[in-house]
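Hi Q.,

Before the meeting this afternoon, I wanted you to have the FE2/S2 (inorganic) cluster prediction in hand. No need to reply - just skim if you have a minute. The sequence and ligand are here:
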Amino acid sequence: MKNCKTCDFKLKEATVVKAESLCRDIISLRIKLNKGNLEFIPGQFIMLSLFGYGEIPVGITTTPDKKTYFEVAVRSVGTVTRAINRLKKGDKIGVRGPYGNGYDVEELHDKDLVIISGGLGIAPLRSLIEYVGGHKRKFKSLQILYGAKNPDEILYDRELFACDKFARVMLTVDEKNGPWGGLTGIITTHIDKLRITPDLKVIMCGPPIMYKFVIPELEKFGIPDEDIQILLERRMKCGIGKCQHCTFGDKYVCLDGPVFKYSQIKDNLEAI
Ligand SMILES: Cc1cc2nc3c(=O)[nH]c(=O)nc-3n(C[C@H](O)[C@H](O)[C@H](O)COP(=O)(O)OP(=O)(O)OC[C@H]3O[C@@H](n4cnc5c(N)ncnc54)[C@H](O)[C@@H]3O)c2cc1C
Ligand code: FES
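Predicted structure with the ligand bound:
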């Protein structure tokens, strides 16, 4: 069992101050702690609990610069997430954390960033995108390649289009429906549209299948494994290195991750 020196196991009481449907099965909740603010870095996660249902890990989707509230996006897949999708403004919830390493933002300074995301993977990356947008001078450039099944499932589309002012944004859908002016095809088919530079850092979040196909494409461009970061998800119970539910090999996703350099995990077959 790993020791966690920084983790706070205390449950903080919080209130939903805005609840908004992002698509068919995903809700965005704006949350305010009843006392104080949540200090976190992009890429960290919290344990969100609903009395009578249980507790789940979720990523934070807003920049830490928004001090007084934070947001999460939750897909309805089971017992707890279904109940969370029914929450309304004014409802009470519990928050533990933040936990995990998050992105080493200083390591990304003065770099050309490429964010690659599929489906709900855009949720934790939105925190980093908002952060980069608020500190543009610290980063050389930003490219975003984001894919969803169809136009209705593109999350934060208006915000992403607005990022055009400081980023190169490419949105793609597997199947188009209605009027769609963006790209079509899975993410791998658009990797060759990225501007590849020597100062590149690639940050990815999406389903494991996306990593399996995108990483070999990135390697073809000579991008070192050290410069590819991915966010891993595992079933979690404690979030603080006690229960072992999130382990693979000698790593704990809740403590050593959820953000890993590909070089750290590429030799571990269970990782992805
Ligand atoms: C670090 C981290 C960050 C996450 N961030 C988000 C987020 O921002 N938004 C979001 O919607 N979800 C996120 N998840 C996944 C989320 O925690 C699970 O969907 C949730 O725990 C399911 O709980 P449930 O009680 O609703 O489902 P259950 O009733 O426990 O299970 C329902 C179904 O979901 C599957 N499932 C359960 N847990 C996971 C899991 N961890 N990964 C994949 N499949 C799972 C089960 O196999 C089952 O098929 C994150 C997970 C981790 C580890
Ligand atoms: S050890 Fe419990 S979730 Fe990681």
